[in-house]
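Fold it.
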Amino acid sequence: MNPEAHPAATPQPLLSLDCVSRRLAGRSIVSEITLDLNKGEALGLLGVNGAGKTTTLKLLAGVLAPDTGTVRIEGRDLYDEPQLGRRLIGYLPEIPPLHSELTVTEFLNFCARLHGVTKAKIGQAVERAIERSELGDVRRRLIGALSKGYRQRVGIAQAILHEPDLIVLDEPASGLDPVQALKLRALIRSLRTDHAVVLSTHVLSDVVACCDRVAILHEGRMRYQGRIDTIGDQRRLRIRVARALAATDWSAIACVSHADAIDASQWQVTLRSGCAPADLAAEIVNRDWGLTDLRDDNTALEEIFLRIASSEPVSHSTIAEAA
């Protein structure tokens, strides 16, 4: 038999939204949203306030049912089989639904049961979630006595403790300090290895740092979808260090393509292809340069986002110009 006569079937996406619309209080909130997401991918969902991000997340997490269109996970209609959401989806809403009278461990044990984790595996699942969310120091404390940043981490822990196929995070960095936010980025990058992740945020640098793809909503409609790595040719970072450096110091780092001084302590650094910001951060720390700030300095995604937010049409030529 000729194998070319029967080409391999295209893998089914883990998550699929097909022309999904939803009205609330007689007003259209999202209209004809279509997107696919595979395991191993992280999608950043961007939009100004009121663009429909939170409603879209609720639809794909199974919290809201669409008025029209279908939401499928592993090819199965989430509206017809709502129990799939409990087992296959981990959801962190913008305001985590926590129980202030419980300790962190008690709450996560409770959530594990809600997600259908078997009794024999609850302890292991809770320990893993506590470790990944760095909650070990507060595991016995009441949630009501925790800072906002720690409460946010508890919300993340409950979303990942049952190892769902799809993880949906609505503004997960809210309330986190800069160090916690960097650790959250690292956690999201690690999660996309074995899961599909949808991250809603208004921070463009979080999307660039954590996601493979970006989708931009405006006035309830999907205005742009694309891969992060096709927007710009090279990754540029803005870095602040405590030590006075020269360009030759940066050229000694293998993952640095070139570096330009902005002022005495701030640099714009361009990474070589295949290098990650975490690699550069580790090099800076190892050299004891006093890393105080590291953020993306790419302007291409920002340009696209601002044009959409101002209701300017965005074409492929516009994207090429921005890149």
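Residues 90 and 160 are 6 Å apart (CA to CA).
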